[in-house]
Amino acid sequence: ASYDMGGHDTYMHKEICEQPDAVDRVLRGRIDDRFSTVHLGGLNLDAREARTIRRIKILGCGTSYHAGLIGAGLIESMARIPADAEPASEFRYRNPVVDPDTLYIAVSQSGETYDVLAAVQELKRKGARVLGVVNVVGSAIAREADGGVYVHAGPEVCVVSTKCFTNTVTAFALLALHLGRIRDLSVTDGKRIIEGLRKLPSQIEEILKTEEQIKEIAAEYAGAQSMMFIGRVRGYPVALEASLKLKEISYIHAEAYPASELKHGPLALIEPALPTIAIVPDDDLLEKNRAALEEIKARSGRILAVAHQPQAKADHTIVVPKNEDELDPILMGIPLQLLAYHTALAMGRDIDKPRNLAKSVTVE
Ligand code: AGP
């Protein structure tokens, strides 16, 4: 790649640090304060059509699939439309029921991932309406879709996605707000979300200032054989993405589980040698998440919490700024990008070009 590293040692570090500007870009020019809504020019979906949507199915691969899982949660909570995400690679081989009242959304950084493109083409062939949430302008998936939202993350060179993931989730928040305001989200709630969105860039700056603390924690974890990532509801896709990122660049084995599922099996793994990274937002599930930390501590497991306030049961807490509950997942993933980064760096890995992986997989 020919882009300047701008004084950073790796593209990944540069791209992590670019996130305040990147998020600013995805929001710019799209917020309409008069109606507490957003304007998405390329959507190609008028209000009357938007009201007829009965379900939303989001398709993507890898990190983009994880962004889609958070996106589905944002759409359900703001627009109250049943929504879920599925790996595009699976969807296209299970002969899915394609329903005319379902809106399909394809998510892709590159816009060229073959499994996603093929899913879009199969859907279009069956007459479905497909939108794209895509980074690369004019890419194959963007062209194939009926409309969509560009995520404006800018060029991403590192094989693992950081800023594009954050921008994709933010783009989903805009889409959810847009659909919500056409349906049942009140002006007041719209305003609340808009204020939250506007706080994101400076809150990301705040998080980036914790890098030294995260580096020290990473030095402790760099020798681990395996790590467990847990979260609940909104926090679970954050855990999935953080565990993928760690695997991709450090080659440490990692698992992600809903914290609520620990007692149904994975608790058997907990012992001092298996650190747990827990997503603990200050929301309606705080007490439930704390109970999970207690379960882990009772089995002498080491815990790193990403939370809005220090957690007594955790060995370390990375404290992140609070936003609106719906938008917290956007912020909570960011310290874990830095954790994966510094863990991999401490292990001497080739961070921008991890073994066996390509930036975009344009073949089957
Ligand atoms: C690198 O391997 C990525 N983390 C990978 O999971 C990627 O997200 C996936 O291949 C999808 O790529 P796309 O967003 O360009 O479609």
From TrEMBL:
Q: Which organism is it from?
A: Streptomyces litmocidini
User: Active-site residues?
Assistant: K359 (for fru-6p isomerization activity)
Query: What fragment of the full-length protein is this?
Result: 242 to 605 of 605
For the protein in the UniProt heading, the enzyme class is transferase
Q: Coiled-coil ranges per the record?
A: none
GO MF term list: glutamine-fructose-6-phosphate transaminase (isomerizing) activity
- Record's function text: Catalyzes the first step in hexosamine metabolism, converting fructose-6P into glucosamine-6P using glutamine as a nitrogen source.
**Keyword terms, alphabetized:** Aminotransferase, Cytoplasm, Glutamine amidotransferase, Repeat, Transferase
Name the Enzyme Commission number(s) assigned to this protein: 2.6.1.16
Enzymatic reactions:
D-fructose 6-phosphate + L-glutamine = D-glucosamine 6-phosphate + L-glutamate
UniProt protein name: Glutamine--fructose-6-phosphate aminotransferase [isomerizing]
- Please give the subunit comment from the record: Homodimer.
